[in-house]
Amino acid sequence: VKGLFLIRSALWRKPMRTVFTVASLAVGFLLFGMLQGVDTAFDQAVERLRADRLLVDPRFGQPLQQNDVSVIQEIEGITDVTWTQFFIGGYPQTGSTVIVLTTEPESFYKVRNEYETSPEHIEALKRTPNGLIVWQSLADDMGWQIGDQVPLQSNVPRLDGEPAWTFEVVGFMDWPDNPGGVPFTVGNYAYLDEARVSPKGVIGRFVVRIADPRQSVEVARAIDAAFQNSPRPTFTQIDDQRAQAELATIGDVSRLTVAVISAVFFAIVFLAGNVVLQSVRERIGELAVLKTVGFSDARVLMLVTSEALVLCVAGAALGLVGTAVVFPLIAPYLLQLSLYLGTPRLSPSVFAWGFLFAGVLTVLSAALPAWHAKRLSIVDALRRRV
Amino acid sequence: MSAFRQIGAVSAMGLRSVPARFGTSLVVVVGIAAVVAVLVSALAIANGFTRAAADTGDAGRAIVLGGSTEASSSMSREIALAVQDAPGIRAGEAGVPVASAEALVFVAVTNVNTGLDAFVTLRGVGASAFELRPEVSLVEGRMFERGAHEVVVGRSAQQRLGSLDIGANLSLPNGEWSVVGVFESGGNALQSELMTDAETLLNAYQRNIYNSVTVRLADEQGLSRLAAAIDTDPAITSVDATREDEYYAAVAAPVSQLLTFIAYGIGGIMAFGAVFGALNTMYSAVSTRATEIATLRAMGFGSVPVVVSVLVEALVLAVTGAFVGALVAWLVMDGSTISTMTGITPSQLTFGLEVGLDLTLIGIAFATTIALIGGLFAAVRAARVPVAAALQMV
Q1: Model-level pTM?
Q2: Can you give the pLDDT at residue B289?
Q3: Do A20 and B279 touch (CB under 8 A)?
Q4: Best of A35, A221, A270 to disrupt the B interface by mutation (most B CBs within 10 Å)?
Q5: Are B88 and B60 in contact (CB under 8 A)?
Q6: Searching chain B, which residue's CA lies closest to the CA of residue A319?
Q7: Percent helix, strand and coil across chain B, each rounded to 5?
């Protein structure tokens, strides 16, 4: 409590100076918040565009082999791999065509995490060889319930000679981001591959999720290189074509943000450091008195550091509150930068970074003055005063 | 003592005592240097972009499009051929029109410098493309051969990506294409692209659609004759002809304005913060000099010389800061290149930066504004120093 009183009186010794310093720091933090906010918004846009998915297709038409999945899994930067093979069937009762994307359910829903379904439905699909997870709107149109048997007519011949492929509805899924998409269903590739006459082990496409969306090109090239001299060369592309084009325009945003923030940081470290140093110089006598009455060197050091901390945290708080107010106002204009950026929202991480930045600023600006104050010799200081 | 001599004497006295207040004075210099360095650098980027876009267009050429931008435009082979036979286009050797039907594709490559993805525009061009664009010159290797899977790379694209040296490969849908040459085009937007033969490229993508036709106009009236032909010939009414310089200025304008806005926006916010720093320093200067000022006033000096001397000190510090800032910007930015979105195509435009006197002057204008605002309040306080009280403190 005594410490707080001392810090307050130190800061209010020259109220104008404290106010101007905090104002200056607040402007610095406002700029930091805005730039960091824009930068994060770009990162989030990249994230949203899901450039983290790659599609591996045959390069010259030779179909891909399902067991090549082991080759792809070995490639660095890949987190999950799944494979798909389309199966198209006619549903005689309504005369409509049903698209079945056959795959391996576990990896499929990991890679395609934008499709919403429940873990129970995925489990049911894994348990039921001829199971089918149906797009909700399709199920509504067809009147399908869980447990319904769905016979589909197809020109893919079965080993057992049966004319129809029968699936059993085991669950539903949705894709909230893409309400207008063509509805389809998801089935087991193993069921298709075991029951069909030929060709065995053949798939249409691998779908790959990668760790870092910004390195999609590198991973894509690594996949194609792995199959370059195989009988089945691949052509790997980023899932979303828009994302491809969009990534290209983002340019040097991050680099510029870092440069500006560095310049601002340098200037405010200098400003805050100088103010604290000036304040310590003016109070040499007072500090000597404190030491005389028994304040330890460490405590004097803490006192000066706390003074810097209050200045920096006050500046950071004001600047970041300013950011929270101003950012939503300029956000609509950021749309001009990129159509797919959307209207960015301020990420909470900006505030965390802001206060971390304030901590570093405190340490840097208080270092010299606090060290001065700690090393202060009582005798010299009091003699100088008189 | 005349008022002017008083001002001179008091200002000189103030400036001579600046070294004694070195630390606090340096705050203004450093603060303003940071503002000016950021402002000048950001303006250099905006100007460099605008210049590169403007240099790409030539008033003697026209671009014919079937959409608002070249990247989104498309036209069939029939239309592209018909456009090249339209009037208003200069005839080259053997009467062949100086025109190039072009197709753009965007190729994903890895930027070796950053390890991240990058996209470049690969422009398929017609046989007359280099007669059409005399600014393009091959500086290394050889020209691509029509029909072969070969490209030439613009110097800026090569520098930006670091991976497109002669002999390097590009992965396209029908296999690997190799880089056989490097070209320059005076630093304009083309220099950020790759070029190859349009027919070979369209084959590789199994496409039969061009993006644009660029033509060399026959004379001053060339464009109006071409535009009239497009309006009247039903085969080609779906396209539009624009003078090339106007096209590039128009497509670059939004990004150009945005970059300028960002430069002044960030510079302005920083300047606002620097004003508080300047206020601090100048108030501190006045309080340090309070006794000196009171003595001068007691000796009969007017308040105007005192006010002016505070402002002069602030201005000297600010202008010093402005030069330091401009110097930093010059050291970091001048002669270097940077890449940004274009608004022209999905790939980036790499352009050169220049920091010159014009930008330095803008920096100085900002600096003096900061100094005048910061200095004025302190100057008024200096003029109001209570003579008796200040002298008693001695």
Answers
A1: 0.73
A2: 84
A3: yes
A4: A270
A5: no
A6: B273
A7: 55, 20, 25
